[in-house]
Amino acid sequence: MRRLPSRPSGLIALLAASLLATLTAPRGVPAQPPAAAATTAAKRQFTTRHVTSADGTRIAYLVAGTGRPLVMVHGSMTLADEWLAVAERLAATRQVVVVERRGRGRSGDAPQHSIAVEAQDLAAVVADVARSAPGTAVAKDASTGPTTGPVDLFGHSYGGAVVGRYAIDAGFPGAVVLYDPGAGLNGPIAADGWAPVRALLDAGQRDSALTRAFETIMGAPPQVIAGIRQNAPLWAQYRTLLPSWVREVQSLDAFAPTAEELARIRGRTTILLGDRSGPMLTAIAGTWVSRQPGLTVLPLRGQGHTGHLEAPAYMAERIRTALQP
User: Fold this and answer.
1) Closest Cα to residue 80, out of 116, 112, 136, 121?
2) What is the DSSP string of 213-228?
3) pLDDT tens digit string along 270-315?
4) Pairing verdict, β 147-148 and 152-156
5) What is the pTM of this model?
6) Distance of alpha carbon 148 from alpha carbon 139, whole angstroms
7) If we measure between CA atoms, which residue out of 180, 121, 160, 148 comes closest to residue 267?
């Protein structure tokens, strides 16, 4: 088991890493949003289904393939579609389910939000998928109770926190794979820089709020911000997702699982860590490793926080490796 150094930090870089990497890529501002760029023919192979979460919110998921199910949870400021290029490859050998998290795309939303609420969303999806999986028993209260059987989990960034919360609450017995997971393990992530962004959002000034987030939270240079604003589809996607992003970053502070909590996860756990993902994500992974004995770390060579967009075939191969018994 690889041990990683733990280094506390309160920076917002955790969830900004994915977005800023896309914005400052050498090829310039993308011609279309990441969700559109990541999916073309892949989207046509997936069927969309819906479940109702514990609070009555409809949650969508996309499914393809047959065999042992893998339920995938995407990160913040993203859509499920961004993972379809990876999921399409994984679906060659198993059933793959990509959850569309609440507050975006095909799913509904509700005023109350927390990682625990999103863990209930995931519980509803897992229970629905597990009903059709051979040899599976589902708890009577599928919205909160544990599910046993041949189901595995994958979570990226903020989605890793959702997966972690659910796996703890359910005593999850299947494989758990986390790619650069987010957590408040090393101190608060939602720094004071969010206050002016939230104030602009509350005042109905979403474009100004997004610009402020780029400037003060992510440190994007003016020319990058100007380029994004000129790209109407890209700006529209980030503008739509901004309220969800703000609340998700803030809710991460409440997810700092102890060693006792992590011990409730009964299945094997693997962290996929990009060697270009940066010090904050490395520090979070290191603290997680120190609190969960037996956890395995698999490096993603030459990859940062957006390996699913930059190298989907490689990402699929590393996920397969992590899922091997």
Assistant:
1) 121
2) IIIIIS---HHHHHHH
3) 999 999 988 888 999 999 999 999 999 999 999 999 899 999 999 9
4) unpaired
5) 0.85
6) 8
7) 148
Percentage of the chain lying above the pLDDT 90 cut = 59
Of 277, 77, 293, 285, the residue nearest 186 (C-alpha)? 285
Q: Tell me which DSSP letter residue 68 carries.
A: S
- Give SS3 for 268: coil
Give the domains, in start order, of the chain with CATH numbers: 13-188+248-323 (3.40.50.1820)
Q: Is 2's pLDDT higher than 60?
A: no
Rounded to a whole number of angstroms, the CA Rg of the chain reads: 18
User: Which tokens is 291 given?
Assistant: 């609190």
The two tokens of residue 212 are 């402020």
Question: For residues 237 and 47, what is the distance between their CA atoms, to the nearest angstrom?
Answer: 22
DSSP state of 74: -
Look up residue 287 and give its amino acid.
T
Find the length of the chain: 325
